[in-house]
């Protein structure tokens, strides 16, 4: 499991773990406590699709830790049956999370700057008949992030905003792909999906953490689209320059 949202205060290395799942959220906090000591992290239970609760999670973090430096919008579900929910979690909440993070970081709001990472997927590049709406949301996250990163640059927000696109990763989400409750009628394409998994391989979450760290640390990156795959590791997507 990787939490839905991470809100990090850099100068004092404090982190708010935000997730719907209380048990997993508390486990994550306990691991952080064990490694970094008590008082460095907090867990906030929150459904990121509930706008007021999400706003409150950001406010509570800033009230507790004093400021916000890094926000990682990571929530994602794989539900083609309830596809409207998939859009709410994977795309709408990423947009809301970005706007809320900007309220707490952007020079536009009198703040001191920061970094936002939005999590997309290689599904945005290698589409599958098994996940049409998931694929659409992950395209949306890339388009939104690139455009808002340009707005940040041109508007002098002082906030770097980048997007991370992992290929298959060994997490609970990957185990939902054979479940009719999640995939609905598209479950019949699961063998096609599993063939892709065998062909492209499955990443370990530690490599995704390494990619995140690069996006956080490299001050030259804004609007970057980082891809992480088994064959090429951490690398960046390049786009053709726009022409008339
Ligand atoms: N696992 C993969 O193969 C893979 C590949 C590419 C991209 N991704 C993306 O990585 C991100 C993390 O996924 P993961 O693989 O760690 O999945 P995961 O299911 O292990 O973790 C997702 C977390 O999001 C939380 N969550 C779901 N809905 C929520 C909501 N409404 N409000 C708050 N929290 C909510 C869940 O409780 C869970 O802790 C997602 O955006 C996913 O689309 C995953």
From TrEMBL:
<dbReference type="InterPro" id="IPR036291">
    <property type="entry name" value="NAD(P)-bd_dom_sf"/>
</dbReference>
<comment type="similarity">
    <text>Belongs to the short-chain dehydrogenases/reductases (SDR) family.</text>
</comment>
<dbReference type="InterPro" id="IPR020904">
    <property type="entry name" value="Sc_DH/Rdtase_CS"/>
</dbReference>
<keyword id="KW-0560">Oxidoreductase</keyword>
<protein>
    <recommendedName>
        <fullName>15-hydroxyprostaglandin dehydrogenase</fullName>
    </recommendedName>
</protein>
<feature type="signal peptide">
    <location>
        <begin position="1"/>
        <end position="20"/>
    </location>
</feature>
<dbReference type="Pfam" id="PF00106">
    <property type="entry name" value="adh_short"/>
</dbReference>
<keyword id="KW-0732">Signal</keyword>
<dbReference type="InterPro" id="IPR002347">
    <property type="entry name" value="SDR_fam"/>
</dbReference>
């Amino acid at each position: 499991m990787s939490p839905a949202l991470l809100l990090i205060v850099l100068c004092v290395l404090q982190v708010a773990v935000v997730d719907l799942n209380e048990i997993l959220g508390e486990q994550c906090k306990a691991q952080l406590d064990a490694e970094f000591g008590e008082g460095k992290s907090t867990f906030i239970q929150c459904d990121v699709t509930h706008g007021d609760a999400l706003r409150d999670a950001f406010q509570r973090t800033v009230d507790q830790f004093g400021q916000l430096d890094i926000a990682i919008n990571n929530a994602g579900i794989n539900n083609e049956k309830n596809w409207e929910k998939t859009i709410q979690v994977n795309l709408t909440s990423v947009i809301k999370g970005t706007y809320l993070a900007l309220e707490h970081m952007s020079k536009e709001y009198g703040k001191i700057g920061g970094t936002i990472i939005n999590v997309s997927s290689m599904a945005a590049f290698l589409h599958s008949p098994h996940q049409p709406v998931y694929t659409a949301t992950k395209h949306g996250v890339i388009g939104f992030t690139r455009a808002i990163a340009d707005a940040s640059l041109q508007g002098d927000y002082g906030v770097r905003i980048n997007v991370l696109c992992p290929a298959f990763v060994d997490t609970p989400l990957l185990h939902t792909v054979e479940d009719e409750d999640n995939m609905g009628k598209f479950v019949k394409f699961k063998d096609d999906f599993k063939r892709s998994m065998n062909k492209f391989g499955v990443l370990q979450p530690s490599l995704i953490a390494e990619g995140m760290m690069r996006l956080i640390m490299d001050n030259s990156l804004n609007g970057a689209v980082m891809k992480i795959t088994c064959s090429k590791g951490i690398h960046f997507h390049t786009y053709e320059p726009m022409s008339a």
